[in-house]
Amino acid sequence: MTEPADLTPFILQGTRDLAALVALESVSAQGRMLPETAAAVTRLLEAEGFTVRQYPGQVAPLLVAEAGEGPATLLIYNHYDVQPEAPLDLWNSPPFTLTERDGRLYGRGASDDKGEFVSRLAAVRALRARHGGQLPLRVRWLIEGEEEVGSPSLAAFVEQHAEELKADGCWWEFGGVSEDGRPVISLGLKGIVCLELGCRTADSDLHSSLGAAIDNPLYRLSKAVASLRDDSGRVTIPGFYDGIHPPSSADSQAAAALPDVRGAVQQSYGVRGFLGNADAGEYNRRMNFEPALNINGFHGGYGDAGSKTVLPASGFVKLDFRLVPGQEPERIVKLLRAHLDAQHLSDIEITELESHEHAARTDVAHPFVQAALQAARSSYGSEPVVHPSSGGSGPMYPFMQHLGVACVAMGIGNVGGRVHAPNENIRVRDFESGVAFGVAFLEQLATGR
Ligand SMILES: [Zn+2]
Questions:
Q1: 347-377: per-residue pLDDT in tens?
Q2: 207 and 340 share a domain?
Q3: How far apart are CA 127 and CA 375, in angstroms?
Q4: Phi and psi at residue 297, in whole multiples of 5°?
Q5: What is the domain-level CATH number for residue 12?
Q6: Based on CB atoms within 10 Å of each CB, which residue in 68, 216, 263, 438 is the most buried?
Q7: Which of 304, 325, 352 marks a domain boundary?
Q8: Ligand 1 centre distance from Cα of residue 120 (Å)
């Protein structure tokens, strides 16, 4: 076990690196300072003995770095781009100046994802120092600058550069620490399909008296939406659940051991209840292993004060499906089409909104996961909280499909970290533990202890 005191110089250097990176306004949505930030990241890596190759991306350069030699190869995935800083007036300190207040470091990217990158780099630096300047395992690092705009180049890049990126496991770009200081580890991400359903029954709006003789697009959309799931949340499209990979017994046990967060969710958001009156076990099972259909918005007709007797000409609904391993996004769209046709709703048009994402999940019993858990126990001194899958989505699938790597998300975020929002922050103690975890994890992979 590494005493945090030994790591002090590396933590201080890491904090200085973080300040330098936060100062670079690498907002990918606005194309700001992306080559400059890629160059700064390259310099930091080269100073630690990495060879760095830069490749063009659709929005920003991708970097592939490599250093070290040993029995194990670790792939690390991070990104150097950030979300826009707006609204500026809600920041308590300048977004691109790393600022310490009350045990936290504030700044855009302090957590997502520059803080994660820098804490890992600090761990590499500490490990090299401990091993006489040599890194006792091979570290491959993929760092992109397009994550916050949906990673448009990433999947094809991973496929084309599979040889360069092959590894025994991948350390995913994010992670967090619970309120009470336990490391929170995620081993998967759900897939996603975003769609719009549209219906038009006339070229222009009509007097509502004509509703006696002419169909209504919002009625037809309601009928379509209502046919997609039941009251418990189960999707009722035939074939939707076919081919799903069931969780392993280790995954099921991990989900069953997760804390009951329903009270906290109810308190934070004032939600009135849970689908299927889920108890804690069922809530965690659903969040980790169940696909879902969610209606994002229902639009059409008159919505202002009072009444307007109108028969609208058209309307639309936006929805997303969250998928689990074994569900093919394209197939889900086809099943939806077939289902609507079978319901005599062929006039409902389906528009696919964004590129779809497949789900990915690494088994908790995988040796790479077990190494991460062991390192987390020794560096945090507490039992990790293990999510077999996050409820959210991200580009993990290409890594598993093309590289065959196990993926572990583990990092320095905190519940109040305000990622993507004003006053993004990390807790200083989480940064320190993150560096200690990185040292323990790399050491564990390199030497098995
Ligand atoms: Zn982000």
A1: 999 999 988 999 999 999 999 999 999 999 9
A2: yes
A3: 14
A4: -170, 150
A5: 3.40.630.10
A6: 438
A7: 352
A8: 17
Residue 150 has pLDDT above 50, yes or no: yes
CA-to-CA distance for 28 and 60, rounded, in angstroms? 7
Q: Please write the tens of the pLDDT for every residue from 334-351.
A: 999 999 999 999 999 999
Identify which of 446, 441, 445 has the alpha carbon closest to the alpha carbon of residue 185: 441
ω into 113 cis (within 30 of 0): yes
Pairing of strands 183-186, 425-427: unpaired
Torsion over CA: 367, 368, 371, 372 (sign): negative
> Same domain, yes or no, for 237 and 104?
no
Range of the domain at 322: 191-244+291-352
Is the overall model pTM greater than 0.85, yes or no?
yes
Q: Measured in angstroms, how far is the CA atom of residue 250 from the centroid of ligand 1?
A: 29
> Is residue 422 predicted with pLDDT exceeding 50?
yes
Helix (H, G, I), strand (E, B) or coil at 162: helix
Domains held by the chain: number: 2
**Alpha-carbon gap, residue 415 to 369, rounded angstroms:** 23
Q: Which two tokens stand for residue 269?
A: 């958001």
Instruction: In the chain, count H helices and then E strands.
Output: 13, 21
Report CA(231)–ligand 1 centroid distance (Å).
Answer: 33
pLDDT tens-place string over residues 105-131? 999 999 999 999 999 999 999 999 999
Could you report the per-residue pLDDT of 259-302, keeping only the tens digit for each?
999 999 999 889 999 999 999 999 999 999 999 999 999 999 99
Please check whether residues 169 and 215 belong to one and the same domain.
Answer: no
Average pLDDT over residues 179-195: 95
pLDDT at res. 1? 47
Distance 211 CA to ligand 1 centre (A): 47
Please give all residues whose CB falls under 5 A of ion ligand 1, grouped by chain where several chains appear: 112
103 & 114 share domain: yes
Under the phi-then-psi rule, with left for phi > 0, alpha for psi from -120 to 50, and beta for the rest, what region is 69?
beta
Instruction: Give distance in angstroms: CA of 81 to centre of ligand 1.
Output: 8
Q: 108-136 b/e with 16+ CB inside 10 Å = b?
A: bbbbbbbbbbbbbbbbbbbbbeebeeebb
Of 352, 368, 396, the one marking the end of a domain is: 352
Mark whether 197 and 336 lie in a shared domain: yes
Q: Is the pLDDT of residue 406 over 90?
A: yes
CA of 229 to the centre of ligand 1 (A): 31
